[in-house]
Write a structure and sequence with these properties.
This protein has a single domain, classed as Four Helix Bundle (Hemerythrin (Met), subunit A) (Up-down Bundle), CATH 1.20.120.1630. Helix 1 packs parallel to helix 3, helix 2 crosses helix 5 and helix 3 packs antiparallel against helix 4. The protein has 201 residues and is mostly helical. The chain has five helices and no strands.
Length: 201
C-alpha cells in the first residue's frame, strides 16, 4: 500500500469519526426537540454577562474548529509518519465512545449550556461514575485526535482555543451545579475527578 492509499484511509477514518460524533450530538438534539426539550441552551436566555460571554465564545470555538478540522482533513496536512496518526485515531474513537456514553446516560437531563429554568437530574452513574464531564472529555479527545492525524499550526491554535473554552464552561457549570443539586453534587465532586478517575481519600 503506497502513501497515497494510506493518506486516503486516514482521511476517510477522520471523516467517519466526525460524522459519528456529530450524528450523536445532532441526533440527541432532534430526539429531545420532539419531546419538547430545548437542548441547546448555549448563550440563550437571561444569563449573567460572564456566563453568556463564555458560552458565546465557546460556541464560536466549537463551530470554528469543525471548519478547521475539515479543511485540514481535505488538504491532508499531516506528519510524515504514521504513529501520531494512529494515536490520533485511537483518541478520536475513544472520544466518540465517551461522548456517546455520556449522552446516553444523561437521557433527557442532557443540555448543551447552562439552563436555569429546566429541571434536570444529577446523573452520577455509568460513565459519570469515573468522570464528571465525559461529554466535554469526548470533545477534547476528538479534537486532539484530529489534530494528531492532520497536524498544522492553525489547527493547533483552534484546538487550544476550543479546549480552553470548554474548560471555562466547565468552571461556570461548577459554580451553578451546587446551587441546583446542593450537597449531592458536592459529595459527587468530592469523589469523582473533573475529567477522568476517582479521587483517593
Amino acid at each position: 500500500m503506497n502513501k497515497l492509499d494510506n493518506d486516503i484511509i486516514f482521511q476517510i477514518v477522520a471523516i467517519l469519526i466526525l460524522i459519528f460524533f456529530y450524528a450523536i450530538y445532532i441526533g440527541k438534539m432532534v430526539i429531545q426537540r420532539r419531546k419538547g426539550i430545548q437542548t441547546d441552551q448555549i448563550a440563550r436566555g437571561q444569563k449573567e454577562k460572564s456566563l453568556f460571554l463564555t458560552e458565546a465564545i465557546m460556541k464560536i470555538a466549537t463551530y470554528s474548529i469543525v471548519i478547521a478540522e475539515v479543511i485540514s482533513i481535505y488538504f491532508n496536512t499531516a506528519f510524515s509518519f504514521a504513529i501520531p496518526r494512529i494515536i490520533g485515531i485511537s483518541f478520536g474513537i475513544i472520544g466518540v465512545v465517551f461522548f456517546g456514553m455520556a449522552v446516553y446516560t444523561m437521557r433527557d437531563s442532557w443540555r448543551a449550556g447552562i439552563s436555569k429554568s429546566d429541571k434536570t437530574e444529577l446523573v452520577v452513574t455509568g460513565i459519570f461514575n469515573i468522570s464528571r464531564n465525559p461529554a466535554f472529555l469526548g470533545f477534547n479527545l476528538v479534537y486532539i485526535g484530529i489534530l494528531l492525524m492532520f497536524f498544522n499550526w492553525t489547527l493547533l491554535i483552534f484546538t487550544i482555543f476550543a479546549i480552553t473554552m470548554l474548560h471555562l464552561q466547565i468552571l461556570q457549570e461548577e459554580k451553578f451545579l451546587p446551587i441546583v443539586f446542593g450537597e449531592n453534587y458536592l459529595a459527587y465532586k468530592e469523589r469523582t475527578k473533573r475529567y477522568f478517575g476517582k479521587k483517593v481519600n
